[in-house]
Design goal:
Blueprint: H1 10-19, E1 25-28, E2 37-43, E3 46-53, H2 56-73, E4 82-88, E5 91-97, H3 112-124, E6 134-135, H4 136-140, E7 151-153, E8 162-165, E9 168-171, E10 178-180, H5 183-187, H6 190-195, H7 200-207, H8 217-237, H9 241-260
Parallel strand pairs: 6-10
Antiparallel strand pairs: 1-2, 2-3, 3-5, 4-5, 7-10, 8-9
Helix pairs in contact: 8-9
The structure holds adenosine-5'-diphosphate (ADP) and magnesium ion.
């Protein structure tokens, strides 16, 4: 859950002032809501994107994200470069390369889909780096043996975590980096393609361009139905718009899978 910059103690802001060469301005991130603090910080030498956390789960998640971002940046050009990180007064603070760009349009026929496809081809061919990452079950809370694998899976490629920059597509928010079968990334994209205006059939037909899209229909059926049940459960308990959207989009895919199987 997001907090205001004002909650940061003096020990944290003084260090940021030092790193930003004195004066700086802050603009909270427009999207996402997982990180406690996520903001663009602008100083005389330019912009840095800053994430910070102080709660136990927040620090654990940000520490995980930092480790994953650093590990993935060694093999792929998609994550933002880490500029600095430090701990002060119970806060973990991470400054990364600021990426200027818009979120991609994931509607049918959008040219941004080509950029996403290129990134997916690279991700699909990249083994998870050494490290202790989520497995499919730990990440998603449900499992089918076909979800097991050794591939690097970002697992949260929602458009807010994608930025189309002058240098091409970049991917942020590696907080849920997962080691799993490559098709798990594709299955987790169905909801965002549907959210972008695809029908479930169009989403599947776009994803079928990837050789890892499963021939094993049973695994896909199971994934779609378990994912939809998970989000339907969350939507019953929570009021946020994005949770209800995910309930609708994952539900639409599960209904389609039941119809075609
Ligand atoms: N390095 C970056 N440069 C510019 N904008 C970023 C950067 N990282 C994240 N953002 C923007 O801030 C939003 C929130 O950051 P994110 O890391 O996704 O946090 P959350 O965990 O809250 O989703 C993203 O959706 C994106 O719009
Ligand atoms: Mg995010």
């Amino acid at each position: 859950m997001r907090s205001d910059w004002d909650v940061l103690p003096e020990a944290v802001t003084a260090k940021i002032a030092e790193l930003m060469a004195g004066r700086y301005g802050v603009a909270p991130a427009p999207d996402g809501d997982h990180a406690e603090i996520a903001a663009t910080v602008t100083g005389p030498d330019g912009k840095v994107f800053v994430k910070a956390a102080s709660s136990d789960p927040g620090v654990r998640s940000l520490r995980y994200e930092l480790a994953a971002n650093e590990a993935v940046a060694k093999v792929l050009r998609y994550p933002p470069a880490i500029r600095w990180s430090y701990e002060a007064d119970g806060w973990l603070v991470v400054g990364t390369e600021h990426l200027d760009g818009a979120h991609p349009d994931l509607s049918p026929g959008s040219p941004d889909l080509g950029l996403l496809a290129q990134a997916l081809h690279e991700l699909q061919g990249t083994p998870a780096p050494d490290g202790s990452w989520y497995g499919a079950n730990g990440r998603l809370g449900f499992f089918h043996p076909a979800m097991d694998g050794e591939t690097l899976v970002h697992s949260d490629l929602n458009p807010a975590n994608l930025l189309v920059t002058a240098d091409g597509l970049r991917i942020v928010d590696w907080a849920y980096t997962t080691r799993a079968a490559p098709w798990v990334e594709l299955a987790l994209l169905v909801q965002w393609l549907i959210g972008g205006g695809h029908t479930a059939a169009q989403a599947e037909s776009w994803l079928a361009q990837f050789p890892t899209w499963p021939a094993d229909r049973e695994a896909l059926d199971e994934f779609a139905s378990r994912n939809a049940a998970k989000w339907a459960g969350k939507a019953r308990q929570r009021t946020e718009r994005w949770v209800h959207d995910l309930g609708t989009w994952t539900g639409a895919w599960a209904v389609y899978r039941r119809r075609v199987s």
